[in-house]
Design brief:
single chain; alpha+beta; eight-stranded antiparallel β-sheet; Pathogenesis-related Protein p14a
Length: 123
């Protein structure tokens, strides 16, 4: 799924979601994928709890390695980000030294990223 894509493009690319409201959710092996849409129906954040989805080599359940720490920067307590270009950021949520979820967002501030994650049912 692409950040900034409309609802029609998202539906064609990812298929029918399990739930559809402001947050669309799909099942994935070992977890779930959620896309948070704006009020106008564009994807602003995509998050995943599936272990195979990774950012900087770290996926859900992995300990945050030195390699992953070197390729991301902290954004407050428990969040690490990596700039991807085009206004997008890759995000890792870390609790207790382990990655809880990964995502891609166009949100620029920590509060906006966490707000979108809460909408998707993640903490």
């Amino acid at each position: 799924m692409r950040i900034g894509a409309g609802a029609d493009a998202l539906l064609r690319r990812a298929g029918q979601p399990r739930t559809r409201s402001r947050v669309w959710t799909w099942c994935a092996p070992g977890g779930r994928i959620s896309a948070v849409l704006t009020q106008r129906g564009r994807v602003t954040t995509a998050v995943s709890t599936a272990p195979r989805h990774t950012v900087a080599g770290a996926g859900r359940g992995d300990r945050l390695s030195r390699w992953a720490k070197a390729r991301t920067r902290p954004l407050g307590r428990g969040l690490r980000v990596r700039t991807l270009g085009g206004g997008r950021r890759a995000v890792l949520r870390v609790r207790g030294g382990k990655v809880r979820w990964v995502g891609v967002t166009s949100a620029g501030k920590r509060a906006a990223i966490l707000r979108d994650a809460r909408r998707a049912g993640l903490r």
